Amino acid sequence: QVQLVESGGGLVQAGGSLRLSCATSGSFFSISYMGWYRQAPGKQRELVAGIISGGRTNYADSVKGRFTISRDNAKNTVYLQMNSLKPEDTAVYYCNAVIATMITRNYWGQGTQVTVSS
Length: 118
Prior knowledge:
By secondary structure, this protein is mostly beta strands. It has strands spanning 3-7, 10-13, 18-25, 30-39, 46-52, 57-59, 67-72, 77-82, 91-100, 104-108, 112-117.
């Protein structure tokens, strides 16, 4: 069974940094896309950053220049380096991946809380 396991969330002061990790476990053929979404209280889940297997990335305008997404294909792990954090970055961050097993589908992690204090 394929699972995404996130780690690295926590409490940090404004201006600080955190690094999120998301490791993929289980049996599968390939991972074509990995990304990070976030959901703040009372708001819809939104894309933060994504990366395809070839390395091309995309970012939400609100995090460009502050966040960096990367992936280690050998470890089937995606990272989100978050710098210059702001209180408005506070949310539950979810890992997302498009993974091929017998079928290709979307998978989600359980979420990790990021809280930025002012």
